[in-house]
Design goal:
- This protein is of the alpha/beta class.
- The chain contains 21 helices and 9 strands.
- The protein has 2 domains: about 250 residues, no CATH class; about 70 residues, no CATH class.
- The protein is globular, with a radius of gyration of 24 Å.
């Protein structure tokens, strides 16, 4: 069926989902590799896992844990789904996509429950694809969870439910039901969550051995069936954790993540790239760049603007805009960030009567800018103006990291240079901030000292 963009403002509005990632084959997908300057990103990622897409040569590492950085809402999941499809189709990898936001509580997330979700999703995927593991493969990890349920669960109602699952029929369905009981309870924020986390930590070595054994046995079956040589987990949603959870997951608990001897990709928030505390334990050099709308010297980057324009006009028919200039203005003030473009489009649909014209576009820009005004401080404006004066400056203090996280500061060309969000530059606080005259960050430090 031929796809047609919505032609009514209300239909456009109702179809905007900020956290929606596009599946393979979605007609709204736009190839953004040239706009991002990410033509080599997939090849680099594939080679980390031992596969060269050009020659099909494959030398898989024993284990590899890779972080995939990018601004929240920049399209990481959409791109990773395309990467996953290519990796999966190579027949070298059996890709297991784990959506932690669907299974777990993003506001209180630790590696303990992510492991539950990984095991549950792996078994679900094997069941769907009809690769049934025998009871010998399932027994070590089943026994570990059964022991936890029977001896450590103090909540009587939940304990009875999980014990029933633990004692249910064997095979993958029984173990899936047991694991699902854990992940569901973790998501609901039950009071016994801390108790289970502590038990998992106390017995983590045994759990890691059992999980690794499950992975090896699954890989052996996949090799025997001629399907794949290695499992590869794609953990999506770990870029949306709260600040303290992010630090604990990627830094404090890195050793526990690495104890699972497999291949893993984790989505990670852009500010972690510059945190300085990752310590080389996890592979941390792959970044999905933003779509670039201009060069560092301010000259237009046509490919980037055309890509964002296509993205917009696949979400709202051209007939809804008064002029091409209105489309281009929305693109320009998005900063090349897909979700920010959708936020502007949403505001336009809420404000417009019949057409999205210049007045509506300006009102949308003003309202989006107001969202940034609520949290930006005078020192933030000074730092943003300092960075705009020298976009290649590599200073990355905590304030710069926070501005990256909250999208007031956007980075381009794989982090080679940065610039403030275009709507922020419309705010009075930015306009009144002192223009740096020497070293930008030195000027900011002096301003804070006054």
């Amino acid at each position: 069926m031929t796809y047609h963009p919505p032609k009514h403002l209300l239909e456009v509005l109702q179809k905007i989902e900020y956290e929606e990632a596009l599946n393979n084959g979605d007609p709204r997908y736009v190839d953004s590799r040239q706009a991002r300057g990410s033509e080599q990103t997939f090849t680099r990622l594939a080679r980390k896992f031992g596969w060269d897409p050009a020659s099909d040569i494959f030398f898989a590492p024993h284990d590899k844990h890779v972080l995939f950085f990018g601004h929240i809402g920049s399209g990481k999941t959409t791109e990773l789904r395309r990467y996953a499809a290519t990796l999966n189709n190579s027949k070298h990898f059996y890709v297991v996509e784990v959506d932690v936001l669907a299974k777990l509580d993003r506001n209180n997330l630790q590696y303990t429950e992510v492991l539950m979700a990984m095991a549950e999703t792996l078994l679900e995927r094997l069941t769907i694809d009809r690769y049934p593991l025998n009871e010998a493969a399932l027994k070590p990890i089943r026994d570990w969870f059964v022991s936890v349920v029977k001896t450590r669960t103090t909540n009587s109602e939940l304990a009875a439910e999980l014990k029933t699952s633990a004692e249910a029929s064997g095979g993958i369905p029984g173990l899936i039901k047991l694991l699902a009981g854990f992940t569901a309870a973790f998501k609901t924020g039950s009071s016994h969550k801390s108790e289970w986390r502590q038990e998992i930590r106390n017995g983590f070595t045994a759990l890691a051995i059992a999980f690794n054994d499950l992975i090896r046995r699954a890989e052996a079956d996949l090799i025997k069936a001629g399907r794949a040589e290695r499992l590869l987990f794609l953990i999506d949603g770990t870029d949306k954790m709260r600040g303290e959870d992010t630090l604990q997951f990627f830094v404090q608990d890195a050793e526990q993540l690495l104890a699972i001897r497999t291949l893993v990709i984790y989505t990670a928030p852009i500010q972690m790239k510059y945190d300085g505390r990752l310590g080389g334990k996890l592979e941390a050099d792959i970044v999905l760049p933003m779509m670039k709308l201009e060069e560092r010297d301010g000259s237009p980057f046509v490919i980037g603007r055309e890509t964002m324009r296509k993205l917009l006009l696949l979400r709202a028919d051209r007939s809804l805009f008064d002029s091409d200039a209105d489309v281009d203005r929305l693109v320009r003030f998005s900063g090349g960030h897909p979700r920010e473009l959708l936020r502007l489009l949403k505001l336009c649909c809420e404000l417009a009567d019949d057409l999205i014209d210049r007045t509506v576009v300006q009102s949308a820009i003003d309202k989006l800018a107001a969202d940034y005004r609520y949290f930006l401080k005078p020192a933030d404006y000074a730092l943003l103006k300092a960075i705009d004066t020298n976009p290649a400056h590599d200073g990355n203090d905590e304030r710069a990291q926070e501005l990256l996280h909250r999208l007031a500061l956007l980075q381009y060309n794989d982090g080679k240079w940065r610039r403030s969000h275009p709507v922020v530059r419309t705010l009075e606080g930015y306009k009144l901030a002192k223009t740096p005259t020497t070293d930008p960050l030195a000027d900011v430090a002096a301003k804070e000292a006054d």
